[in-house]
Design goal:
The chain is α+β, with helices and mostly antiparallel strands and 328 residues long. The protein has 2 domains: 8-63 and 167-183 and 269-323, 3-Layer(bba) Sandwich (FAD/NAD(P)-binding domain); 67-165 and 207-258, Cholesterol Oxidase, domain 2 (2-Layer Sandwich), CATH 3.30.410. 20% of the residues lie in helices and 17% in strands. A 5-stranded antiparallel sheet has the order 7-8-9-6-13. Strands 10-11-12 form a 3-stranded antiparallel sheet. The chain has a two-stranded antiparallel ribbon with strand order 1-2. The longest helix is centred in the middle third of the chain and has 17 residues, at 210-226. Residues 95-103 and 187-204 have low confidence and may be disordered. The structure holds flavin-adenine dinucleotide. Residues 31-34, 36, 136-137, 263-264, 295-296, 306-308, 311 line the site of flavin-adenine dinucleotide.
Length: 328
């Protein structure tokens, strides 16, 4: 850094672990994702403690759509579709490696929890993955005997919260700036800075606030009620779920224990007009004239649906800034 601009980037790769330096011509684009872009900024001295640029909120405001998976045991294979002929063509014989491995489709619904008013946008996203489909980050949580993606007897429903209250944080691992960042999870309250943990570790700290858990429970109960309607009635049974005869506190505890991170991370280098925003409306890092953030880190509030299309809009905006197009 020199005089409010980045002048060079230091990097290392697995093949060339010694640090290399490349000079900056037009600018620097940060696009390492909402977990790693703040890590790069923090490692470069842009963060709460500087020293290059003091920016209090780098790594804070991490948001996701927490999701609760529900496993359905099917009493019929009527919902199963065999992989089509393209499967062998595209996958070279390995059904799990194939682009066409998903034998069916997933269907989704956006619904309002009872916490919403009649005019509010939906705050819950329900997704039914047909038999044979799963989500990689969910599979390991499924009960024994239901983890096989190609199983005909298992379907998965996820209930995701679209406007979560919880905020998490990413911090630099002081002992290994090149290693994974440290992820701190917790609601917005005093527990926000609870014990730091590795991004890949599963912990007993919930991804959700109490209010988030209540909305998710609402969605889970909606799914269970749907399964009691035709034509699903009698064709599906829940392998897991909140204890039916438990108290509300027991059912909320089940939700808190099962709520998963959902890989929709945003918000750790949030765009905004205020001085506390990490990047400005042109996606320039405040305090640095030639560094832009072009990924989900810059999205200040998680969108009310899957996030990838919003990431593309932000990336396009960052490109326009570097190219000198549009408002600066
Ligand atoms: C399993 C899964 C399913 C998903 N499904 C959907 C979906 O159906 N719809 C949807 O809208 N979104 C979905 N998402 C979310 C979507 O993929 C992300 O929102 C989007 O990819 C975020 O884009 P990004 O550019 O911010 O980060 P990323 O796509 O994560 O890109 C960051 C890149 O930076 C690289 N990188 C990180 N650190 C460094 C470093 N130090 N040096 C060099 N490179 C680095 C990473 O390898 C990666 O290639 C899903 C995500 C996952 C994981």
């Amino acid at each position: 850094m020199d005089g409010g601009a980045a002048v060079a980037v230091e990097y290392a790769t697995a093949e060339a672990p010694e640090a290399s330096v490349v000079g900056v011509a037009r600018g620097v684009v940060l696009a390492a994702g909402a977990l790693n872009t703040p890590r790069v900024l923090l490692a470069s001295g842009v963060g709460p403690d500087g020293p290059a640029v003091e920016s209090a909120n780098v790594g804070r405001n991490l948001q996701d759509h927490p999701a609760v998976p529900l496993t359905l045991a099917l009493t019929t294979d009527a919902f199963y579709r065999d992989p089509g002929p393209l499967d062998a063509f595209a996958g070279g014989g390995d059904p799990l490696a194939s682009l066409w491995a998903s034998p069916g489709t997933s269907v989704g619904a956006f619904v309002r929890s009872s916490a919403c008013g009649a005019d509010d946008d939906a705050d819950l996203q329900l997704t039914l993955f047909s038999p044979g489909q799963s989500e990689p980050h969910v599979a390991e949580l499924l009960p024994e005997g239901h983890r096989n993606r190609t199983a005909r007897n298992t379907a998965l429903v996820t209930v995701a919260l679209l406007r979560p209250d919880a905020r998490h944080a990413v911090k630099l691992n002081a002992s290994d700036a090149y290693g994974p960042p440290i992820l701190t999870r917790g609601p917005r309250d005093a527990a926000w800075h609870a014990a730091p943990r590795c991004a890949t570790c599963r912990t007993d700290t919930a991804w959700v606030t109490d209010a988030d858990a209540a909305r998710l429970l609402d969605g889970v109960e909606r799914v269970r009620a749907l399964a009691e309607t035709d034509p699903l009635r009698g064709a599906v049974a829940f392998v897991d779920g909140p204890p039916a005869d438990g108290s509300r506190a027991d059912r909320l505890a089940w939700i808190r224990a099962r709520a998963l991170a959902n890989s929709h991370w945003v918000g750790t280098a949030a765009m905004g007009d205020g001085a506390d925003a990490v990047v400005d409306a042109a996606l320039r890092v405040r305090g640095l004239s030639n560094v832009v953030v072009a990924d989900a880190a810059a999205i200040p509030r998680i969108p009310n649906g899957n996030v990838h299309s919003t990431v593309l809009v932000f990336a396009r905006r960052a490109a326009a800034t570097l190219l000198g197009e549009g408002p600066s």
